[in-house]
């Protein structure tokens, strides 16, 4: 494969366009702004316009399959008044201005991309549009207020000029700091189902991922890594080096790597070397005796309950692996006191620091090229292989591409935290809920947006314990909100059934203050043909709010002849505020639902020495392209602030399935993943 052309951009538009993605030639120093290429003019931190009319948007967020390269570019193009067929994207350079303010870093996670960058990107487009209009007005001797910009042209009555023609003159003007953005969608692009910029390249295979990087004189490496806290104890160097194609074996305290003519040769060398590592073996469940800190307290739960006996239930969610197809990989090149790294990264800052520390260089001497991410579940938040790739580049003196095997990637995956939720609730005389208590034992300190239910309950107490576990956990699509959503919506359903109430009506009676969520619930039951969810029904519902958005889900599910859960239909209603691209929203909600369904029905991993045991993906029952449930997405129009959607389906999927099974079988499943054979 030819070396990557770092100047190639991803371009939207008609047929034959958008074939390759790589990188712009990034500035070398930390804190640098965009640099102009030939015939380009820079407009602030996010935008470049070429004399031929091409508009290039610098996108600070990783493309994980969520379509964010398209969504963010669409915001800029609409505000600017660009022609979509002439819009391209490049990864933003390394500068503090590109930090995600919602996550305090250059991080792509938590359904924050649109929410964090809508304002800055619209402002960038508005400022550039103002400069272009002023340049045209000066050229024509007319008032700037009388000019308009649309479809790549500035117009005034019968005059018009392409924005590329005006770019040089516009860039020479001073930007005003009081430019206001236009009305939402005034540019004719926002709110439209525009084609994804990355789709052509993904369809024809020309989109390059981390494993596709090729550099002159690059060598290929495989590695075995010690369990957390472990060390390399023994291996056979001679057996490894005797393998055909093996070039070099490199040992370190916590790993053993092999360099080969091919990656497979390196991998076979490691197999022959039979490395042995120290490790430890401990359990993998939250501590039920942990101390709980009250994180929300409304009313007086103890007084409300008094001597009455509250309903109670406990929900357990096992740790979940990412199980993506893309293995962990990174390429490193050290030359002339500078380091370059190519890797799929969602936490850019952490990956950049890890690379600099491994090389012993200042961050300003390190260039990190964030590759498109092949695993949309969140695994790219981990940058563990980057330091090893850098060390191998130091020792070999050559560019090194390091790739973990599929098994190794599973072994060193950091799964989503498990959860233990103990719920208690007291029905009120009017058939609603008078008091609610939730105690959530979960790993980590991340905020859980939906830990407090959306319902109007007089007395609510929520406690949380940040549980220590014998293995490391990490972010997964849907966040900890997915865990809380399962416990909350399952327990609400249980309370409704204990009162012989329709689960939909029961919820609606408590959603007076959550109008947007109530609209979602009403819409989904109407579209789905809700039958009341009584005994013998195959329907279940769930609703939740998080990420600035709201979702309700109706599921039809049952148990098949093979005694496995069969989900036939999913109907979701979503209010995510202003919508940049309805196709992207539908794709993300559908993908989130199917991913969450896989997590709910895939057996939990076993752990040895603090690591998940690798399993063949083909035998786990992961969903294939066919068959999948019929999925219907209803988008509820809203002018509210745009919310996030990438993890929205995770909030409600498992609970809706459990509620449907409770209707049809009379059996309540309180553990994830579901196990119909468990007692």
TrEMBL record:
InterPro entries: Ald_Oxase/Xan_DH_a/b, AldOxase/xan_DH_MoCoBD1, AldOxase/xan_DH_MoCoBD2, AldOxase/xan_DH_Mopterin-bd_sf, N-heterocyclic_Hydroxylase, OxRdtase_Mopterin-bd_su_IorB. The chain crosses the membrane at residues 7-26. Keywords: Membrane, Transmembrane, Transmembrane helix. It comes from the Bacteria. Pfam families: MoCoBD_1 (PF02738), MoCoBD_2 (PF20256). Coiled coil: none annotated. Residues 204-281 form the Aldehyde oxidase/xanthine dehydrogenase a/b hammerhead domain. This is Molybdopterin-dependent oxidoreductase. It comes from Sphingomonas alba.
């Amino acid at each position: 494969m030819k070396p990557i052309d770092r100047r190639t951009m991803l371009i939207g538009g008609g047929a034959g366009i958008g074939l390759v993605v790589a990188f712009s030639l990034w500035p070398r120093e930390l804190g640098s702004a965009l640099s102009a290429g030939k015939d380009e003019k820079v407009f602030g931190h996010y935008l470049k316009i070429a004399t031929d009319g091409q508009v290039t948007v610098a996108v600070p967020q990783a493309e994980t399959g969520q379509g964010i390269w398209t969504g963010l570019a669409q915001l800029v193009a609409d505000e600017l008044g660009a022609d979509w067929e002439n819009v391209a994207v490049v990864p933003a350079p390394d500068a503090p201005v590109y930090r995600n303010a919602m996550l305090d870093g250059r991080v792509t996670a938590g359904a924050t991309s649109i929410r964090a960058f809508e304002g800055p990107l619209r402002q960038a487009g508005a400022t550039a549009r103002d400069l272009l209009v002023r340049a045209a007005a000066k050229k024509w001797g007319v008032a700037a207020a009388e000019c308009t910009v649309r479809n790549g042209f500035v117009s005034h009555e019968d005059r018009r000029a392409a924005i590329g023609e005006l770019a040089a003159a516009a860039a020479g003007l001073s930007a005003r700091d009081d430019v206001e953005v236009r009305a939402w969608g005034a540019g004719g692009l926002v709110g439209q189902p525009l084609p994804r910029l990355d789709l052509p390249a993904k369809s024809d295979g020309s989109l390059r991922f981390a494993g596709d990087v090729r550099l002159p004189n690059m060598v290929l490496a495989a590695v075995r890594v010690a369990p957390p806290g472990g060390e390399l104890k023994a291996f056979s160097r001679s057996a490894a080096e005797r393998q055909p194609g093996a070039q070099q074996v490199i040992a370190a305290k916590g790993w053993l790597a092999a360099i080969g003519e091919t990656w497979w040769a390196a991998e076979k060398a490691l197999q022959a070397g039979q490395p042995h590592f120290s490790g430890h073996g401990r359990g993998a469940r939250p501590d039920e005796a942990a101390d709980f800190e009250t994180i929300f307290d409304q009313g007086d739960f103890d007084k409300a309950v008094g001597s009455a006996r509250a309903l109670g239930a406990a929900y357990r969610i096992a740790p979940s692996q990412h199980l993506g197809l893309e293995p962990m990989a990174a390429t490193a090149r050290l030359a002339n006191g500078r380091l370059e790294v190519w890797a799929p990264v969602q936490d850019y800052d952490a990956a950049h620091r890890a690379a600099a520390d491994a090389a012993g260089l200042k961050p300003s001497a390190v260039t990190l090229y964030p590759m498109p991410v092949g695993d949309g579940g969140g695994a790219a938040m981990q940058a563990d292989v980057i330091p090893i790739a850098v060390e191998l580049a130091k020792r070999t003196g050559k560019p090194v591409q390091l790739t973990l095997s599929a098994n190794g990637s599973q072994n060193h995956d950091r799964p989503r935290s498990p959860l233990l939720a103990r719920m208690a609730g007291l029905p009120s005389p009017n058939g609603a809920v008078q008091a609610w208590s939730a105690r959530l034992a979960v790993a980590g300190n991340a905020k859980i947006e939906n830990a407090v239910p959306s319902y109007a309950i007089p007395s609510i107490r929520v406690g949380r314990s940040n549980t220590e576990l014998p293995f490391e956990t990490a972010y997964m699509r849907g966040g900890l909100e997915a865990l809380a959503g399962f416990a909350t919506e399952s327990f609400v359903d249980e309370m409704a059934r204990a009162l012989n109430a329709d689960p939909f009506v029961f919820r609606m009676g408590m959603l007076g203050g959550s109008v947007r969520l109530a609209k979602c619930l009403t819409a989904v039951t109407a579209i789905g043909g809700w039958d009341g969810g009584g005994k013998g029904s195959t329907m279940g519902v769930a609703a939740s709010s998080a990420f600035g958005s709201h979702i309700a889900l109706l599921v039809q599910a049952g148990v098949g002849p093979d005694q496995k859960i069969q989900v036939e239909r999913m109907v979701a209603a979503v209010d995510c505020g202003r919508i940049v691209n309805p196709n992207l929203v539908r794709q993300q909600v559908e993908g989130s639902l199917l991913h969450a369904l896989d997590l709910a029905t895939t057996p939990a991993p076993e752990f040895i020495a603090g690591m998940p045991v690798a399993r063949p993906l083909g035998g786990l029952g992961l969903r294939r392209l066919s068959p999948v449930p019929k999925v219907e997405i209803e988008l509820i129009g809203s002018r509210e602030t745009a919310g996030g959607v990438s993890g929205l389906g995770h909030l409600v999927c498992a609970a809706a399935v459990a509620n449907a099974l409770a209707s049809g079988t009379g059996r309540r499943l309180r553990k994830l993943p579901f196990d119909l054979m468990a007692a």
